[in-house]
Specification:
Length: 685
């Protein structure tokens, strides 16, 4: 297939690998073109033969990883009204179970638990099954639960009577995965995905009526925008959130008049983002409006939240990136990142006094879950580091007391003193200091002899946390240095760090990663012939780019669901994510300049004859985000252009999508496979 854009003609010899009926195939894989299926199955057979000698190692790795998981683990239930809601697993179970207990019951008293949804039971007989959770109604009588049984991310919603455990006749197909109850518990709102897999419509469903009779509440006709629907803690408002990667718009619907038209808060302006949370008589609005690059928090009257009524509450401070915010009866809280590390800030709404929840480790991760109730002084957060298992706390915002609720158990044992976590900085090509988080055993020799798994992502402003990973211990225990390169394209060092790794600046992401590899070698942590690079999705694009730019600096590359056919995908506006992705990568259809930005690095287009290292790409047949044909074409082209290098392996999961297998132990099998590849190419089997 040939394509001419902006005077440039490109020929794609592997375009035939894209199924003409891909949209329908995502819902019924049996209709896949037999020639394409045969090709994918042949690739899987080749991959299995090449990895056959690692099978014993994979079993050992899986057993280690499984041994670090408390199989019958249970969450600490979250209080909401007369109940507290939680999740747990049973020994040997793949899927979560959702339960509730009376509000003040002992969480350890299993006899007090009422089982609401058993994921293992619902998944029986299915090759793939993923729950989107269960959301209870305000009166606690019903629950909306959703599932995807193809991996295509088309979710089916059902309504469950929580008293009897029986599902009502309601079945809502092709949703984005969740719903928001109206306060009366008689109806809910959800987003419907169109044929191009875009959540473009919000519907109002009355329990008991067929989906065909649901009322269309709002339709977003610009295919470049995502849309979601949510609710407030006070049940006063339904939020309709419309956004791409740099622009947002909210419409709100008062739950006192469910038949009304949603009310526009502030019309979208290119490059202006905002998000909302309710605070009783006001809304708190997190925004970058007015050149607040690292965001600020505004407030507006509940009755008139238009932009003309916004007033500043928390000012913009360059270098302090505000990530999210929540409001409760007496406190405003937000999660921010400063100097690459997160912290939780608390503000007394009456006095304006602020304080922080901070920690002393060199690198760590915080998770802020807040509370399910508005009138509370107690919020919940989690803490971990590369060496410290996750700790869950309740925190009293008034007294500033924290109470440890739970520490992640590692049944097979874990001594944090056996490991070291560090944060070092690699100087990139233009002088930027790239943070690199490290984990290794305290007895690992730092003389260049250690193998290293170097992970990177670098897109959409997503920061990779320095959190505890029981799986990474399997590499550290084998003498590996496990490293995360916090490259540009994420917000690890603020919003500017993101902007410096997108659009025309995208190549900074790739050069930062290579600089991280250079620094680790220069400092004696590893050597080039011992570094295995890993990244997935947009991080898979990073893997494809560094393979082209510096193949000699990596012993192997693991590219999970890799976005490598960037130019072709961004030129096809029928694909699910293409129009919303243009603000991230550029629009090569409309702009010749942006076409050339992408063409300069698009991994599939830049493959040429050179000594590529051993490489494995992992793919999912029903993946709507990175379609299966991207890694399939890439591997074929690598073999054509550089047949003497490699080898190049492709593993296509024929019954899963973007996230791989859905069960918790099935996922461990996939990680064990990836780590076995890394250990093999590092020569450590």
């Amino acid at each position: 297939m040939s394509d001419t854009r902006h005077g440039v003609t490109r020929t794609d010899d592997y375009a035939w690998m894209r199924a003409d009926n891909w949209q329908a195939m995502f819902k019924d894989t049996s209709i896949l073109d037999p020639e394409i299926r045969a090709h994918l199955e042949a690739e899987n057979a080749y991959m299995n033969a090449a990895m056959d000698d690692t099978r014993p190692l994979q079993k050992v790795l899986f057993a280690e990883m499984k041994g670090r998981i408390k199989e019958d683990d249970s969450s600490i239930p979250v209080k909401d009204g007369p109940y507290a809601y939680g999740t747990n697993f049973v020994t040997g179970g793949e899927q979560p179970r959702y339960f509730r207990i009376p509000r003040d019951a002992d969480p350890k008293d299993e006899s007090a638990r009422q089982l609401l949804l058993d994921g293992d039971r619902e998944a029986q007989g299915k090759d793939y099954f993923r729950l989107s959770g269960i959301d209870h109604s305000t009166d606690h009588n019903r629950g909306i639960w959703g599932y995807d049984d193809k991996g295509s991310e088309y979710f089916t919603l059902k309504v469950r009577d929580l008293a009897t455990g029986e599902d009502l006749p309601d079945v809502i197909d092709n949703t984005a995965g969740g719903g928001v109850w109206a306060p009366d518990g008689q109806s809910f709102f959800y987003t419907l995905q169109d044929d191009n897999h875009r959540p473009s419509k919000v519907f109002h469903h009355i329990v008991g009526q067929p989906q065909s009779e649901d009322r269309l509440v709002f339709e977003e006709k610009d295919p470049g925008f995502f849309m979601g629907v949510g609710g407030s803690l006070l049940d006063d408002v339904i939020y309709i959130d419309i956004h791409d990667h740099e622009t947002s718009e909210y419409r709100i619907l008062s739950t006192s008049d469910l038949a009304a038209e949603p009310k526009l808060v502030a019309a979208r302006e290119e490059g202006v983002e905002y998000s909302m949370t309710e605070g009783g008589d006001v809304f708190y609005i997190l925004t970058n409006d007015g050149d607040a690059k690292d965001f600020k928090i505004m407030q507006a009257p509940f009755a008139s939240p238009g932009k003309e009524n916004w007033t500043e509450v928390v000012p913009h401070e360059p270098g302090r990136l505000i990530l999210s915010h929540m409001a409760y009866a007496r406190h405003l809280i937000w999660l921010e990142r400063r100097d690459g590390l997160p912290r939780i800030m608390i503000r007394d709404r009456k006095s304006g006094e602020e304080h922080e929840i901070a920690f002393a480790e060199e690198a760590y991760s915080l998770g802020l879950s807040g509370a399910a109730e508005y009138d509370t002084d107690i919020i919940r957060f989690s803490y971990s580091s590369m060496t410290t298992p996750s700790q869950l706390y309740d925190y009293n915002m008034a007294t500033r007391e924290r109470r440890l609720l739970k520490t992640q158990e590692v049944p097979s044992g874990h001594n944090p003193a056996d490991y070291v976590t560090r944060r070092v900085f690699a100087r990139s090509h233009d002088g930027a200091e790239v943070p690199v988080t490290l984990l290794y055993r305290a007895d690992t020799p730092l003389d260049g002899s250690a193998p290293c798994l170097l992970y990177g992502y670098g897109a959409y402003g997503i920061a990779i946390p320095a959190s505890f990973s029981t799986n990474a211990l399997s590499l550290a225990d084998r003498g590996f240095v496990y490293a995360i390169a916090h490259v540009r394209g994420g917000k690890d060092k603020g919003f500017q760090w993101y902007e410096d790794g997108k659009m025309e600046n995208k190549e900074n992401t790739f050069k930062d990663f290579i600089a991280a590899a250079d620094h680790l070698v220069a400092q004696g942590f590893t050597a080039f012939d011992r570094i295995i690079a890993e990244g997935g999705s947009a991080g898979g694009m990073l893997m494809g780019a560094i393979a082209n730019m510096a193949p000699e600096k990596f012993a192997g590359i693991i590219a999970a669901v890799p976005f490598v056919d960037v130019l072709n995908t961004m030129l096809d506006d029928t694909l699910p994510l293409t129009p919303p992705e243009w603000p991230e990568w550029g629009n090569p259809i409309e702009s010749e300049e942006e076409y050339h930005w992408i063409a300069a690095y698009s991994p599939y287009d830049k493959v040429e004859q050179k000594p590529y290292p051993p490489l494995i790409a992992l793919s999912g047949l029903t993946d709507p985000r990175v379609t299966y044909w991207e890694p399939t074409k890439w591997i074929a082209k690598l073999r054509e252009k550089a047949p003497e290098a490699g080898p190049y392996l492709l593993k296509t999961n024929m019954a899963a999508g973007h996230g791989g297998k859905s069960g918790r132990f099935q996922r461990l099998e996939e990680i064990a496979f990836e780590y076995a590849f890394a250990i093999k190419v590092a020569g450590k089997m």
